[in-house]
Predict the structure.
Amino acid sequence: MSFCFGLAAVGGIVRKRVIMKKVIALSLSFVMLLGVLASCSDQKTEETTTAAATTASETMQESRAETAFKHFYEFTDAYGNDVVIESEPQRIVSVSPVMTEIVYALGKGDKLVGRTIYCDYPEEAASLPTVGDIYSPDIEAIVALEPDLVLTSSIFSEESFNQLTELGYNVAIVIDEESFEGIYDVISTVGNIVGAPDEAAALIEDIKAEVDQIVNDKVDCDISVYYCMGCGEYGEYTAGGDTFINDIIELAGAKNAAADAKGWAYSLEALIAADPDYVLISAWAYDEFTTSENYADLKAVKNGNVIIVDSNLFERQGPRIVEGLKLVHELVLEAAAEEAQAA
Amino acid sequence: MEKKRHNVWYKVIIAVVILIAVMAFSCCLGSVRIPVRDVIGAVTGLTEVSKATDTIVNKVRFPRICMAVLVGGGLSMVGALMQGLFKNPMADPSILGISSGSAFGAALIIVFNINFSFMGFSGLYLGAMGGAVLAWFLVYNIARISGEHDLNSTLLAGIAISSILSALITLLMTLHRESMEQVYLWMLGSFSSSTAQKTVTMAVVVAVIFPVLIFMAPRVDVLKLGREAATGLGVSASRTTGILLCACSVLLAFCVANSGIIGFVGLIIPHCVNFMRVYKMRGKLLMCFLVGAVFTLLCDTLARTVVAPGELAIGALTSLIGAPYFLYLMLRNLLRERRMR
């Protein structure tokens, strides 16, 4: 402030333009430099705190080595970095609905301190404070919860990852695979990270048992199922042949009507050509699908075989994927029964 | 003449005071409620605050506030220079094609999921910078083909390159719909990914470019008299234009890489400063920096508090808030003129 007044005074006194120009430019750069130095000192304190944190973790590691304890868990995250979890996490912020579900399924729900606004299962999660969503997590809210681990899946943006790691927080980005088998890997990794490897193994065994039961209950029925993720003006979106939803449908004993497509985009023409027997759709798209002219000629619409499903059972690669599998399997059984009756 | 100089300085001082006040005010606001006492304690380090409070105030909010100030000020200065150089009140930073270049680089990184880090800067940041450099390289060299730095060619080349890159971005988005939302959100602009490192880099860039612009500013006033008159007065139109455009491009590239495309600021803040009756380029640049900084900071603070923990797109807020205020200023000015007639 006084500096500015001084500058004004100088401006009043000095008449010569050239000197005035130089004075202004120099003083302004001086002010800027002050600002830079101020932010630099912020960085220096950051460096000293990270140094302090590193020495702290080093001493912790040493003491652990003395007691012949290795660091808690080490794995490779979605960016290919080796992540070391020093000790069992006591305050976990989950920035992914799938992670929330898995952590609760492993019985470590009490260690969760934060969730995204979309983490709606199980019901106990509703009592946790929210930190935004996975695309734009609220860094302030995450910091305020003082987590020792931020658990998320690979949709998490690199920018947010850099921000959190720069602030010194552990971020575990678990790779999600585009396959049914990948889900077992995810559950086992998360189990190791949160300190529940046995529960994870047990959960995987349970899921595998249920899947085997369904797969072995094969019926001789060839129905085609179309999983509708989006329809109408926005274009047709479904699960192509290389997605895990395709795996679910195939495992249940049905055929994915969009198996020839790759990825998630589809076209109305291809849908009409495929003419699936059953259509699985979310509640919000149901009206559009059943009333629009575009789909009126599909046999699924005509026979009333457009079925509302909870998309979270299919799109979240977590333990509830088995529910989705069962749902499709029931359709197959139903269709087989109808066929048998008609025959 | 003396009186006018004094007037500018008073306005500058008031603007600086307002800026500091708004910065302090913004430090206290956020998606997490922190009492003012703790905020002051965290900033000054005098009282003990919890680690979380210290981290939030000093490492999350403060870098973001500084970034909003620097980017807002930078964009406004570039806008003022564009309007001065091209003698067109509708000129804004995007005519150089650099914003489109940045967006293109960022879109490529997002769509093809290229994950890498260099010296602490994320791939997205570097991709945006790379895109900006590419666009500027094309525009600059096309404009210089005639041998001299021609404003007309720069404008046209900027428009052409902008169109090409925008079209490419649209194609990328429609062919990769799953990334569409992310690309679009990046383009809408946000300060949420401001880290201390990025802010320090930005501060250094502004510290270097700011004196250059201030030094060259009076020559822009002379250029308004026309090329021949300017040359007669010792101001080379080609060299001045070349240096200024290069400096502006560097500044703009960093602005857009850090925050995405914030559209309204560069266009309207120079006009608001005009209404404050600051006419000469040097004072105008300074006032534009300060006013732009205050405005962008206010918008960013609103963006991150109104729907916390969510965030509003800052590009939308700057237009929503800026346009009505601008209309108000314009009407006030017009009515004043009417009364004088």
